[in-house]
Amino acid sequence: YLNKLANYHRFISYWLYLGGFIAFVLSLQKKKYMVQFTLFGWTHIVLLCCVVQSHLIIQNCFEGLYWLLYPASMVICNDIMAYFFGFFFGRTPLIKVSFEVTCSFYALHNILEYVAKLL
Questions:
Q1: Dihedrals phi, psi of 33, to nearest 5 degrees
Q2: Among 19, 102, 110, 119, which one has the highest count of C-beta atoms within 10 angstroms of its own C-beta?
Q3: Mind listing the pLDDT tens digit for each residue in 70-103?
Q4: Phi, psi of 93 (to 5 degrees)
């Protein structure tokens, strides 16, 4: 059911909008044109702000998914390498909260981070 809805989303949205527009025209009443067209305009402004922005944000996420996943994976690799180098080779704690991350990990994990970046 959802697959058909996703395939014909634009078609369904267009006909729903067209039906709403026809309902608006049919519901026009004399002496209330100003109020009705004002509400119609505000409805379009709200739709423009909400729908268009969310569409563009989602489109940007799909186009730039690489730029979301690549930095996140580099942070994850950095934390894992810092932990392992601090656990196996570290002598001086970097901060009191994390005993495994040490001052000596900087030089060692940077080498592996550059290797991971090249991969």
A1: -60, -45
A2: 102
A3: 878 888 887 787 777 777 776 666 566 555 555 5
A4: -65, 140
